[in-house]
Amino acid sequence: MKDDLNRIRHEYGNKELSKSNVSPDPFIQFQIWFKAALNENIPDVNAMTLATANSNGRPSARILLLKDFNEDGFCFFTNYESKKGNELLINPYGALVFFWPEMERQIRIEGKIAKLESDLSDAYFYQRPIGSRIAAAVSPQSQEITDRKSIIKKIDQFKVKNGDEFKRPDFWGGYRLIPDLFEFWQGRENRLNDRIEYTIGQNQWKLRCLAP
Ligand SMILES: Cc1cc2nc3c(=O)[nH]c(=O)nc-3n(C[C@H](O)[C@H](O)[C@H](O)COP(=O)(O)O)c2cc1C
């Protein structure tokens, strides 16, 4: 296994990233890179790792789908009573990571996380396919279940009781990460990768080059 891992050595190097070729606004820079990744037809281009931590500082991470982003932040949807939901309740900070290997690019985003306004959560919930809505309403995400069959049974019972017309459950909705740090990473030759970090201070983004 170790030999297999050691054999994996991919040389990066197509593109360049410097303070002079990025936008001074990290949201615009994100949009430029996201659009470029979309144009490359990268599968699950909106999949990102979200890291949270519990009250002891112990981290946990998982993949989620980015569902919206704008100057206000980066939005995703989940169960508020899941592991991540419980961690965010006591420690409302998180970190996102996007990795697009086809473009040799990584983006890290850190900041405070708050629940999305309920009208926005409603708007997203009601446009989901009915099957996904029912799954969200029925699954006690992150809790122990006996087996898959028990969830299927709950789904069948839910359908009989509620049909297609039911409200978004209070325990399911969106979050928004409000960034105070971005890092754009471009793979380069000999691991001398380019890294540009943005941090916010007095309502202004400050850019720094970081060592690879
Ligand atoms: C590609 C992919 C996309 C996912 N998207 C979501 C999502 O948008 N929302 C969500 O709650 N879980 C999503 N999941 C499942 C999560 O990774 C995770 O299993 C779940 O949210 C429970 O995490 P937790 O126990 O840490 O709270 C996705 C998983 C994968 C692999």
Automatic annotation (TrEMBL):
Required cofactor(s): FMN
Keywords for this protein: Flavoprotein, FMN, Oxidoreductase, Pyridoxine biosynthesis
Entry binding sites for FMN: 62-67, 77-78, 83-84, 106, 141-142, 185, 195
A GO MF label: pyridoxamine phosphate oxidase activity
UniProt-listed PROSITE patterns: PYRIDOX_OXIDASE (PS01064)
Function: Catalyzes the oxidation of either pyridoxine 5'-phosphate (PNP) or pyridoxamine 5'-phosphate (PMP) into pyridoxal 5'-phosphate (PLP).
The protein, known as: Pyridoxine/pyridoxamine 5'-phosphate oxidase
Origin species: Ancylomarina longa
Annotated gene: pdxH
